[in-house]
Design goal:
14 helices, mainly alpha, three-stranded antiparallel sheet, elongated
């Protein structure tokens, strides 16, 4: 089936001439016949753009036109695409084989048809992947452009990460060696080879971008979970202050009986510039000013070394990832508590056994801080017991001397 230019131009003119009527039909779902639009509706119905609805004087957009508008309007709203690359590869292989047979029979019309089918299939696959990656990257990197809360943002990024991992599995179905086999045809026309080579290059670029996006998503998801813990603690403190508006923090730094742990320093006195009123600095400042006045000629700038430096083309050395030493020790301490099946594990004994170089007080603070950062399901498994000196006069604070961990 072939169409001439006038038929296509006439169809486009009908769409352009009834733009507001079609927009109203798409938004409202239906359009009713009136004296002012009867001729336009009859013309659009004959062209296959409108169809009758349940009522005789009511019309809707045909399915093809509605799907076209949906695709053009919603292509940048969702990144999850139903892409079956395995099926796409089989379709392209069949079209290439049909195109080859048409060329051998010198059937130019059929060959042109199959070539357009190959071009459309490859273009739509790459376009779907490109749209999916760009919209997904915009969704995960925007602060709250698509959602309104931190929890929703975490759920959104978790869903995006799951979709990206499924997309990686889908991309693994494509073997580029099979795509290169499409070029093994001895007398392959240049127009077909250009389309295949462009598809291979774009596919490689998409795989590289998807790998970097997955790594970025994992980092952002970890950061958001840390922010969620901070937000939960801040929300709990705000709720406490709303329930107890009379509460005020006590200033223990001025009391003589307060232990050293609860004392606060006097703070830093910051100055935006040099204090010219300071008598200690006045003599030096006067000497600097007089020396500047005695200079008749300004100091010449030092000569610049304009010699060319050879470009270092050596590959940079790979830097291995180093974990925090004490974070690893704390994880080992928690793992030891889980392995001992209900028996207590002493944090101080672990500190002494490993010969850690930090002070015992700092080690206990780090253990307690890491325990507070554990998820709720982990804290319900490991019980933490603190032993120390109660400071009854200071709102129930304690000076901790020992921490015991036990599996519940």
């Amino acid at each position: 089936m072939s169409f001439d230019r006038e038929q296509i131009a006439g169809l486009i003119r009908k769409l352009a001439g009834a733009d507001r009527l079609l927009a109203q039909t798409y938004i409202d779902g239906t359009v009713f016949v009136g004296d002012d639009n009867r001729g336009s509706i009859d013309s659009l119905k004959k062209a296959g753009i409108l169809r009758t609805a349940d009522v005789s004087d009511e019309y809707r957009l045909t399915g093809d036109v509605k799907r076209l508008i949906d695709r053009l309007l919603l292509r940048n709203q969702r990144y999850q695409q139903a892409i079956d690359l395995g099926k796409m590869i089989l379709t392209v292989e069949e079209d290439i084989e049909d195109y080859r047979r048409a060329i051998e029979r010198n059937d130019q019309d059929e060959a042109r048809y199959h070539l357009e089918q190959i071009d459309d299939t490859l273009y739509e696959a790459i376009e779907s992947l490109e749209t999916s990656l760009s919209v997904m990257f915009a969704a995960i990197t925007s602060q709250f452009g698509f959602v309104s809360s931190l929890n929703s943002k975490i759920r959104q990024n978790r869903r995006a990460l799951a979709y990206a991992q499924r997309l990686v599995q889908e991309l693994n179905q494509v073997d580029l060696n099979d795509c290169y086999d499409w070029l093994s045809w001895a007398a392959i026309p240049p127009e077909l080879s250009r389309k295949i080579i462009r598809f291979i290059d774009q596919y490689k670029s998409i795989v590289e971008r998807l790998t970097s996006i997955v790594a970025r998503m994992k980092t952002l998801l970890f950061t958001l979970r840390l922010q969620e813990q901070t937000a939960n603690r801040t929300r709990a403190m705000a709720q406490f202050l709303r329930q107890h508006p009379e509460w005020e923090p006590l200033d223990w730094s001025i009391e003589a009986a307060a232990p050293e742990l609860l004392r606060r320093g006097s703070g830093l006195n910051l100055s935006p510039g040099i204090d010219t009123a300071n008598p200690v600095l006045q003599a030096d400042l006067v000497e600097i000013v007089q020396e500047l006045r005695r200079q008749t000629n300004p100091l010449a700038p030092p000569p610049r070394d304009n010699a060319s430096v050879p470009l270092d083309t050596q590959m940079p050395e790979r830097i291995e990832y180093h974990r925090d030493l004490y974070e690893s020790h704390i994880e080992n301490l928690f793992a030891s508590a889980l392995e001992r099946q209900g028996r207590s594990t002493s944090a101080l004994q672990y500190w002494q056994g490993e010969g850690l170089e930090i002070k015992a007080e700092l080690w206990l603070d780090m253990v307690f801080a890491q325990y507070c950062c554990l998820p709720q399901r982990m804290r319900s498994v490991v019980a933490l017991e603190m032993q120390g000196e109660n400071l009854s006069a200071f709102n129930g604070n304690q000076v901790i001397h020992e921490i015991s961990l036990r599996r519940v």
